[in-house]
Design brief:
About 10% of the residues lie in helices and about 30% in strands. By secondary structure, it is an alpha+beta fold. A hairpin with a 5-residue loop joins strand 20 and strand 21. Helix 7 crosses helix 10. The relative contact order is 0.12. The structure holds calcium ion. Calcium ion (CA) binds next to loops.
């Protein structure tokens, strides 16, 4: 079945390259006024003919993250410079790809907030905060992130961490409607972007490690009314099946644990749509608990876990599925990015669906039937030897099933996967898929005793049980081994080349017709590489870790590239320069000849002017109070806000010396004592700190702010 070809070509829309770029220049705001968000089915389906926009997180319905713009290309990319930037006022991971349409860039940040910018100047047009209750963070396995929004018919749609699907007015950011898409009492979360197909908003959710049952739902985009819901796994067997195929799925499950705690299979990220076949593809997550012997004693495939599922977007009716990891037991989700493409094989063109899920195999499926065309290892996985193309099933390594052998084992990959949510891209120019790969392993062992946890996570795996295996001779390097950008030839199902990262960690990828790919790293750089060879052509320091994928668009006749930066902690070499964000979260927009610069220090711009004025009140408290505050700060506050109130590389909280609350005890108390900013990640301390202690901490921070002000005044005098 594996097919070989000498020349790889791909079907490309007829209006290509230079012609397309001219077309984008003709797209003027007088036709679609700024902020009109006038996205309709025609514009989405023919997104390639309007490359000046970036209509959806994945670029288009096919989710190839490929742009026909070639104004920035391999010959001039060295001239790329910063056009503008905007400080983001949240910490934590920034995973969203911006969406650009009708002169406005829309982006979501951590805590499901939305910001809209004028793409010419970076001027903030509006912002929206859904006020997600901070306590919801305990239900999020992997930070309070959000991977983006969707735009349709004048409105902007986002899924909030707490399970709401929210429609906003695209011009003003005011709420049009909001609907709870999950059972609010259950630990569902939403971090993925909605997609919009034929007037329906498609949204999934996460939480498979907790105690939820996966599903994907479609809502009417105008009214917010539910149109259909498709469940990924069977539920309570005493109740009727919600869909006919669940009857078949139920035969692949055993026992009663799974439906009591949901079974998992959440649709938390990857989706794509093929307008020609009118088919929606969604990826489903891992089982709950991970350990299959507990979840489904005696085995079974456990449909539809870890699968790519094809659905009718109008009705939600099942078309076909392909299960990547039958009887999943290692947290091997298949929620990773999915893309639709035409591949040209020697025997002809095939419309395909491609995915590189956690389990380490790169899958190419026939988009119409789900038939497996190829499945080859894209990273050194150890849980299977290969995938049998005839049956479509992996041939497992027996030892990897710790829950069957009852023996601990090191398996690659671990739960992080060889590829996770980080966007991959497909270049129509090179025919290569660019995958952010992180090679890792973990030890798995069955616990000696398992008690169902109805409140928190249920992995059913003992992580300590196999830890000693790493001490044995010949054991692999423990945990995170290496990461790289992989250029994968999907027709020949093999690696073309790779670009190794200096520092472990994945970052999303964008491909363009300028024979370029753009990607960041965890070392604080955003770079461009030649798409045919991987040669590094350009790089810019961005002072933050980069995990998200970039978008490209045109403004005032010029191509721009936008990337949202910010990950956990700061790069080793970076200092904090964004007073509103401990990890220097920012939106950065580049263009040829761009000459803007990032600040080099927190308090001054590159021109030396105060960027954020430090303006503390006079210190009136006694030395004793300040000393008590210092002790209490060290014990309660320093972990987030930095030792001695100076945030460091690992700090996740803002620099309190610059806080506008310092002169306002009536503002300090609600925040520190009562938890008024809990939704921003600042818990209240009313249960643990007395009012005297809270006052003392305020006095200490005022003291530290005055210290800093004095130092800055001194430095200014010496200039
Ligand atoms: Ca998981």
């Amino acid at each position: 079945m594996r097919m070989r070809t000498m020349l790889l070509t791909v079907a490309v829309p007829t209006l290509l390259a230079a012609g397309a770029y001219t077309a984008l220049q003709a797209q003027s705001p007088s036709v679609t006024p700024i902020g009109s968000a006038a996205v309709n089915a025609d514009r989405l389906i023919s997104a390639a003919s309007e490359p000046g926009s970036w209509f959806a997180v994945g670029g288009s319905y096919h989710e190839q993250r490929y742009s026909l713009l070639e104004h920035i290309n391999e010959t001039n990319v060295q001239q790329l410079g910063l056009a503008w930037y905007a400080d983001i006022d949240t910490e934590r991971g920034q995973e969203a790809t911006p969406v650009v349409v009708d002169g406005v860039m829309y982006v979501t940040t951590a805590w499901s907030m939305v910001k809209a910018y004028d793409i010419r100047s970076g001027q903030l047009l509006w912002e929206y905060d859904p006020d997600v209750a901070k306590g919801k963070a305990v239900d999020a396995c992997c930070d309070v992130v959000n991977r983006g929004l969707a735009v349709w018919n004048g409105k902007v749609y986002l899924g909030a961490l707490d399970g709401r699907l929210i429609a906003l007015n695209g011009r003003t950011g005011t709420e049009v409607w909001s609907v709870q898409t999950t059972e609010a009492s259950l630990p569902y979360t939403i971090t993925g972007a909605p997609r919009i197909i034929k007037g329906r908003v498609i949204i999934g959710n996460g939480g498979a490690e907790y105690r939820v049952r996966g599903y994907v739902t479609a809502y009417d985009a105008e009214l917010g009314k539910q149109v259909w819901r498709w469940w990924t796994v069977p539920g309570d067997p005493s109740k009727p099946y919600e869909q006919p195929e669940l009857e078949r799925a139920a035969k692949t499950w055993r026992g009663d644990v799974y439906w009591k705690i949901g079974g998992g299979g959440t649709v938390w990220d990857g989706m794509a749509y093929d307008p020609e076949l009118d088919t929606l593809y969604v990826g489903t997550g891992n089982g709950n608990p991970w350990n299959q012997a507990i979840r489904s004693p005696g085995g079974g495939d456990n449909l539809f876990l870890a699968s790519i599922v094809a659905l009718d977007p109008t009705t939600g009716k099942y078309k076909w599925h392909y299960q990547t990891t039958p009887g999943e037991t290692w947290d091997y989700t298949a929620t990773q990015p999915i893309m639709v493409a035409d591949l040209v094989y020697p025997r002809g063109k095939r419309r395909v669906v491609m995915q590189a899920p956690k389990n380490g195999f790169f899958y190419v499926l026939d988009a119409r039937t789900g038939q497996l065309l190829s499945a080859e290892k894209f990273a050194p996985l150890t849980w299977a030897t290969h995938v049998d193309l005839k049956s479509g099933r992996p041939v497992e390594v027996d030892e990897a099933r710790y829950e069957v052998t009852q023996r601990p084992v090191i398996v690659a990959p671990g739960a992080l996967g060889m590829h996770n949510w980080h966007p991959m891209a497909f270049s129509l120019k090179t025919g290569l898929v660019y995958v952010p790969v992180h090679v890792n392993n973990a030890s798995y062992a069955s616990p000696t005793e398992f008690k169902l946890n109805l409140e928190g996570t249920n992995t059913g795996v003992s992580f300590a049980g196999g830890a000693a295996l790493y001490d044995r001779p010949g054991a692999p390097t423990k945990g995170n081994v290496e990461s790289y950008i992989l250029a994968w030839d999907p027709v020949n199902a093999k690696e073309a080349w790779r670009i190794k990262n200096e520092i472990y960690g994945a970052s999303g990828i964008l491909a363009t017709a300028g024979n370029l790919i753009f990607s960041g790293n965890h070392n604080g750089e955003f770079s461009a590489f030649r798409a045919t060879t991987g040669e590094k052509l350009w790089s810019a320091p961005v002072q933050a870790r980069v995990v998200a994928g970039a978008a490209t668009f045109a403004a005032e006749g010029q191509q721009h590239v936008a990337i949202l930066v910010g990950g956990r902690g700061l790069p080793n070499t970076a200092t904090r320069t964004n007073p509103a964000s401990a990890n220097n979260s920012r939106l950065l927009v580049f263009k040829l000849g761009g000459s803007a610069t990032l600040p080099t220090a927190m308090s001054t711009t590159s021109a030396g002017a105060p960027r954020v004025k430090i303006d503390p009140p006079l210190l009136t408290a006694s030395n004793e109070t300040v000393f008590a505050g210092e002790q209490a700060f060290a014990a309660n506050c320093a972990v987030c806000h930095g030792p001695a109130a100076v945030p460091g590389a690992g700090s996740v909280g803002p620099d309190l010396r610059y806080s506008g609350l310092l002169p306002i005890r009536n503002g300090w108390n609600p925040t520190v004592r009562d938890g008024d900013r809990a939704q921003r990640g600042m818990p209240g301390f009313s249960n643990t700190l007395s009012q005297d202690t809270i006052d003392a901490i305020l006095a200490y921070v005022i003291k530290r702010a005055n210290d800093e002000k004095a130092a800055q005044d001194d430095a200014a005098r010496q200039k």
